[in-house]
Amino acid sequence: MPENLFKVNIEEYMLPGQRACQGCGLSLAYRYVLKALRENTIVTFPACCLTVLHGLYPTTSVTIPALNCTLASTAASASGLVAGLNAVNRTDITVVAIAGDGGTFDMGIQALSGAAERGTDFIYVCYDNEGYMNTGTQRSSATPMGALTSTTPVLTKQQPKKDMLRIMEAHDLPYLATTSPAYPIDLYDKFVKAKRIKGARYMQIAVPCPPGWGYAPKDTVRIGRLAVETGIVALFEIEDGKFRFTGRTKTLAEKGNKLPVINYVERQGRFRKMSIEQLRQLQRWVDTRWNEYLKRAEG
Amino acid sequence: MKKKDTNISAMATPAVGEAGKTGDWRDMRPVCDHSKCIPSIKKKAACFLCWLYCPEGVIKATIPLEIDLEYCKGCGICAEECPGKAITMVNEGEKNG
Amino acid sequence: MAEVQIMTGNQAAALGAKLSHVQVVAAYPITPQTSVTEMLSQLIEGGELKAEYIRVESEHSALAVCISASTVGARVFTSTSSQGLLYMHEQIHWAAGARLPIVMCCINRGVGAPWTIFNDQQDSIAQRDTGWIQIYCRDNQEIIDSIIQAYRIAESVYVPVMICYDGFVMSHTMMPVEIPDAAAVSDFIPPYKPHTILSPEAPMNINPVLFPWRRANTEGVLCDGYMEMRYKLQKALDESREVIASTSRQFAGAFGRDHGGMLWQYKTDDAEIILAGMGSVASEATMAADMLRSEGIKAGVVGIRVFRPFPKEDVRAAFRTAKAICVFEKGISYGYEGALCSEIKAALYGTDIRLPIHNYICGLGGRDVKARELAEAVRSSRDAIAAGDTEPVPKWLNCFTE
What we know:
The complex is a heterotrimer.
Chain A lengths: L1 H4 L19 H13 L3 E5 L3 H6 L4 E2 L5 E3 L5 H14 L6 E7 H6 L2 H9 L4 E7 L35 H6 L5 E5 L4 H13 L3 E7 L3 H4 L6 H10 L6 E4 L2 E4 L1 H9 L6 H4 L10 H23 L1
Parallel strand pairs in A: 1-3, 1-4, 4-5, 5-7, 6-7
Antiparallel strand pairs in A: 6-8, 8-9
Helix pairs in contact in A: 2-8, 4-6
Chain B lengths: L10 E4 L13 E5 L5 H5 L6 H5 L5 E2 L5 E2 L9 H5 L5 E5 L6
Antiparallel strand pairs in B: 2-5, 3-4
Chain C lengths: L2 E5 L1 H11 L4 E3 L7 H12 L6 E3 L4 H13 L4 E5 L1 H6 L1 H9 L5 E6 L13 H4 L7 E4 L3 H18 L3 E6 L8 E5 L2 H7 L16 E2 L8 E2 L5 E2 L2 H30 L7 E4 L6 E5 L2 H15 L4 E6 L1 E3 L3 H8 L4 E6 L9 H10 L8 E5 L9 H16 L8 E2 L6
Parallel strand pairs in C: 2-3, 2-4, 4-5, 5-7, 6-7, 13-14, 13-16, 16-17, 17-18
Antiparallel strand pairs in C: 1-8, 6-15, 10-11, 12-14
């Protein structure tokens, strides 16, 4: 059965009938995040799509203990959980902070940087759906250039995506990894690894969002896969400073057959007003990073 | 005597169907043609990409495959990702396949 | 045995936290609170207090840490002032809604703009509607004693408590303080029993979304909507009055000091004119009352110790026989009057206590408030009342308003 086939924990911690949208990339990712983290985990999250997924009082769709916190305080909330659990001698529990790109790249960055610098023993997970999706697709600093959002409704986003991974790497973390729900096993393995490591760990999941990005719910895995195939998302991990490509990205890097970004862009409604110049800039943005990664993977 | 909510702050407990019967959200439902389904053909645990990619966790990786239509939201990822094209999305109201 | 030491208000606060066996401290330095964080760091790093100290990057995170640590069953402490308290505002509401027995010291300081580092009470007054119990201290002894009381109160009613004391006037002023006996404090505050503990043994989702309407759980029990849950917070604050008063009485029994429960009174029995205030200004008012009495004016003082929940009944009893009230406040609800003045007026509404109430805004941003100035204000109010001025606008004391 699947546990032998895929070598994953067969237990489901997200119960059927949860509240997230059809084809939600976060739902798919979260299913494997929880499988990897297992029972001895407490998650904390701010107001975001995950709040919706966890559901309304008095019921919840997730069997892992969860604590809601305010938008700017996800990593601080995790710090409090770690401190409180230490104080009551519960050191067997993994504390996980999880927020979207709004709660991470934007409002949560201060608390995240603080908790990371303090070496807080926790896993911080950013599920990056590239916008304020829970409030209806507004621009965030994670939104890529050329994307339409409800706050860049005419001109599209003019600036490139913030490179949060470099910011987090500058905190000298013991473990940092990028993942995609289109590659659940790669995601699962990285979270299993992250759980074993001590200290502040940063995980970024590139989460496709059907309503926010303008594609059919059935295409979530396909879009997630194209993000990786085009190098928009690179799957890698940095363990104690050592950079390593993983999964599909590793193969792409070895074979040198990364696709042009147009293959990814053309399938999403949010890019329908993207100019040729923006497309060129996006390709350059991807290529610059890709080449840096290649160098680091060799080194 | 009717039981009251004695919680002094909000604390929710796990329940299947938190958002109700999410199967009601569907306008199309996945239908599996087991004669094309790889585990059914091979009679062993194989493929199960539908199980792997289901964002809801409502597919049971059994032989034959089972989909919990009470909660399946009908996103269609399973049909899209099925390498044997065994799963097709059928309009609700239409008969199987 | 209890010993007496000369110490600042901030030292008294840190010692109060230590005696209360706090397990997690998270705080961010801000003048005039800073030395509280320094002393607690010293106590924890020096091994005198077994606690986790989280050196957060902001006040917003300080209270976030306290909220989460309290949720998993730890006794927590934080302190701040002014902008720090304002920066926490969102979390202050959250802590109360989550019904967490957090104790925080607010070392009162004015708020910007423009900048001031000096004392008034605008910071904590602005947190009036957050659902916290607010206790205003008048000397350093009351700070240490009130922190100990606060844990007992907070952990029995599951409402957070803010211990407010005036910046510099108390925080940096040395006063003799009797340090309560550690064993007696341990007896006075039983170990913290959370109303809920977040743990893998009983997974739940704490503080999720509540809709306007009620919703059934899996057993069919109709559970609270947002409004029912919020009503429980109001009920808890209403019921906390008795707990605050009894805690104060029991503290007096155990330690020999009674700070007055909801409010304290000074020479009010025969007082015709009563000076009212909170914190150090009320303490200063006792000297003003003595000055006035030496001139033959029967003056007394009511110090409001607990601003939330507001001591409506105690206020009615305290002012029953007075002929006039002068309310002195280190803060104002801009566009109207001092918040305490409004509360006192509201408490007397509908009773047969009808008397002129004069409001003086004083000491903003550290402006001196001396007993003789308070006494002079009372004299001028007396004259104005004699001349028939029963409803004057708030006067800004010791301020060049023209």
